[in-house]
Amino acid sequence: xxxxxxxxxxxxxxxxxxxxxxxxxxxxxxxxxxxxxxxxxxxxxxxxxxxxxxxxxxxxxxxxxxxxxxxxxxxxxxxxxxxxxxxx
Length: 88
Prior knowledge:
The protein has 88 residues and is mostly helical. It has 6 helices and no strands.
């Protein structure tokens, strides 16, 4: 996959990491897709887009409190983010 090649060449290329995670989710490989997002957040805890995506995923499975926690974390970095405000 091109995403994995891009990630291997530049571990800080966050867009490639997010695209890879999204591809996994689209392929219904939810465990690895979520893990890919969690890896992003481990390395880039201020990545608002990944925080919001995890909040969305937790909402989809009925884990509203966990979703709220990730949205609140996103708001620390981007207080006006409308997507994060929907969860808070």
